Amino acid sequence: MIKSIAGKMPKIDSSAFIAENATIIGDVEIGVNASVWQGAILSGDTNFIQIGAESNIQEGCVIHGERDPIGRTKGASIIGNRVTVGYGAIVSSSSIEDDCLIGMGAIIFSGVKIGKGSLVAAGALVRENCEIEEDCLIGMGAIILSGVKIGKGSLVAAGSLVQENKEFPPRSMIAGSPAVLKKTLSAKEAFNLRKITLSHIEGNNK
Prior knowledge:
Elements: E1 2-3, E2 11-12, E3 17-18, E4 23-30, E5 35-36, E6 41-51, E7 56-57, E8 62-64, E9 77-79, E10 84-85, E11 90-92, E12 95-96, E13 101-102, E14 107-108, E15 113-114, E16 119-120, E17 125-126, E18 131-132, E19 137-138, E20 143-144, E21 149-150, E22 155-156, E23 161-162, E24 167-168, E25 172-176, E26 179-184, H1 187-203
Parallel strand pairs: 1-4, 2-4, 3-5, 4-6, 5-7, 6-8, 6-9, 7-10, 8-11, 9-12, 10-13, 11-14, 12-15, 13-16, 14-17, 15-18, 16-19, 17-20, 18-21, 19-22, 20-23, 21-24, 22-25
Antiparallel strand pairs: 25-26
């Protein structure tokens, strides 16, 4: 279903694939060669949603924005180019930069920024106003509470619980419940982490 609301009709590039039972409502823009698969819901009823070129929103995803009294930039959901949002994931008024993978069943809360080339694995949860910098890997089932900042090229181990407002420098290896900095990754380890992340991202593109 493609439907206008409050006078705003989705803008969908002619090259994009939209499954027949996907739901796209209101202030939504979908870019060149992007795809929205069966059962996905993009609800631009309260704020703007942008899906970049060659990104794919897989089956059962929910993407929406939150109302912002000042304008439509804050509270919007901005999905960059070549991003995969996996089966059943939820993204709420957040920014996901180019070449990222959001794994199946992951939940991204309001005000989160996911940096370019990062992977948020299946079942992970990232709470409000977190910043995950470029080339990070957030492991399966990890929970990152509100206001956390994780530096570029870092790894959060599967099942970790990162407490509110913690900050970690680039190339951190973070693990535990509560999570702590275990070590700083070497240049070689960071390079290998990037290769693993890229292989998963490329393997999940439809």
